[in-house]
TrEMBL record:
This is SMP-30/gluconolactonase/LRE family protein. It comes from Rhodococcus pseudokoreensis. PANTHER family: VIRGINIAMYCIN B LYASE (PTHR40274). Pfam families: Vgb_lyase. InterPro entries: Vgb (IPR051344), WD40/YVTN_repeat-like_dom_sf (IPR015943). SUPFAM superfamilies: Calcium-dependent phosphotriesterase. It comes from the Bacteria.
Length: 374
């Protein structure tokens, strides 16, 4: 069962002025290349105990990382890190029918690769990045279930996420190549923009739309959040005050500010949209002393929701109130479930769709149902 007793309020935030420093150090980013390998250790999922508010759909041995809700059909498209089938034991996309629990599976079209992130584009296709033996972006047509692939200029570029931009294009960060990629949805031409800073300044995980015509992404190893203005081509870099915080998932909050999680810093950060000031809010509680917070999404209720423990086998979902700065946690049904991501488009519509990578299942909850619990 979920915890029902109230959590204490975090301490007041600490304000620090933004610094735009460029790291010049060279460091290994082997963690990015090995993440998929680590996730292949996903075993047959442990039996799930009932948990109020959540409905589960088992997907054992495929390490489901992200579930993307397809509103028009009601189906869930699943980014599966592992596909122990005929396509070289690499990733696949699954299509879950919540009415029956059945999953149709489509191995990725490029052998030896796994998906790095996925989102529906304005063209109606499910776009995703892939990396491994080669790198690129691709889409799955939800009607025909056919793939089209578009390789990057560098086969080792390692694009890790993708999201629609404000200019009829999909944007994706290239972690190894240290570039920001863009594919035009009309021409399918790829352009790649070098990210200034060098060294540890690599785009790592999540890319999301920012204010106006901006896109924003995390550079976790450099401990900063980066904005890219698609209208001007300018980059703005925000250094996180807490050393080694590993900022990950980020989103625009209801106040127009950038909010982001600090996986090792055990905090949620806020970047003021005008001054660039960063305020940090501790999110550890006695019940969840090591949150290992991952991606943040803005829910239909105006709260920030997070998947916690993706790299440490945690099993909670967080709810953070941006006004009171209160954090509450909800237990997922499976122990050591490793929730990887929450679909931001579904959250905006009132539904949490969560991939449990090491738990081997997809969990779904209505935001209103969780808010009724506590």
């Amino acid at each position: 069962m979920c915890h029902t007793h109230p959590r204490p309020h975090p301490t007041e935030g600490i304000q620090v002025t933004r610094q735009n420093l460029h790291s010049r150090k060279q460091a290994s980013i082997a963690i990015l290349a090995t993440t998929a390998t680590v996730w292949t250790l996903s075993m047959t999922a442990a039996a799930a105990a009932p948990a109020a508010g959540f409905v589960e759909y088992p997907d054992p041995l495929h390490a489901p990382c992200e579930g993307i809700y397809h509103a028009s059909s009601g189906r869930i498209y699943i980014e599966e890190i592992v596909d122990p089938g005929p396509n070289g034991n690499v990733g696949s996309l699954g299509v879950l029918d919540p009415a029956t629990g059945a999953i149709d599976r489509y191995p990725l079209p490029v052998p030896g690769t796994t998906a790095g992130g996925a989102a529906f584009g304005p063209d109606g296709n499910l776009w995703f990045t892939y990396f491994g033996t080669s790198s690129g972006v691709a889409f799955l047509d939800p009607d025909t279930k056919e793939y089209r692939t578009f390789p990057t200029s560098d086969p080792t570029a390692t694009p890790t996420d993708i999201w629609p931009g404000p200019d009829n294009a999909m944007y994706f960060p290239e972690s190894i190549a240290q570039k920001l990629g863009r594919i035009d949805l009309a021409t399918h031409q790829i352009s790649e923009i070098p990210i200034p800073g060098g060294g540890l300044n690599v785009p790592t995980t999540i890319i999301m739309p920012g204010a106006g015509k901006k896109m924003m992404f995390s550079a976790a190893l450099a401990n900063r959040i980066v904005e890219y203005d698609t209208a001007t081509g300018e980059f703005t870099q925000h250094d996180v005050p807490t050393p080694g915080a590993v900022p990950q998932g980020l989103t625009l909050g209801p106040d127009g500010a950038i909010w982001f999680s600090e996986t090792l810093g055990a905090k949620i950060g806020r970047i003021d949209p005008v001054s660039g000031e960063i305020t940090e809010y501790p999110i550890a509680t006695p019940e969840v002393p090591i949150p290992s917070m991952g991606p943040l999404v803005l829910g239909s209720d105006g709260n920030l929701w997070s998947a916690n423990g993706g790299f440490t086998g945690g099993s909670t979902i967080g709810r953070f109130n941006t006004t009171t700065h209160r954090i509450d946690y909800f237990d997922l049904p499976r122990p050591v479930s490793g929730p990887c991501d929450i679909d931001s488009a579904a959250a905006a519509a009132g539904k949490l769709v969560i991939g449990q990578t090491t738990g081997g299942a997809v969990a779904i909850a209505e935001i209103d149902d969780l808010n009724a619990i506590k």
